[in-house]
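Q: Convert this sequence to structure tokens.
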Amino acid sequence: MEERAHGRDIVMAATTAAGLRFRAVMMTSFAFILGLVPLVIASGAGPPPSAPSAPLCSAALIAASCLGIFVIPGLYVAFQRFREKVKGQDKTVQYRHVEPDEDQ
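A:
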């Protein structure tokens, strides 16, 4: 929303936001998934009772991370374009080159 307030294009704003979130989301996701690895590969006489849920939890976290990084920005772009079309606002950014003042 901040990028849009500064007049940036919808797709550029969503791409910038996804890039800013990417590292934090991936670091926390991988930390959790790697923490589940011992439960996933546990076998033997006494595997913990939570072992069957470990693969499900890691797969669900991978899916949620992909949704958060790739699908949510796409949905933002789609809904923001729809919103602007309904309200009749066209916020297409027109970039133009501005020469710096020579007095300064």
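The longest helix spans residues 53-87.
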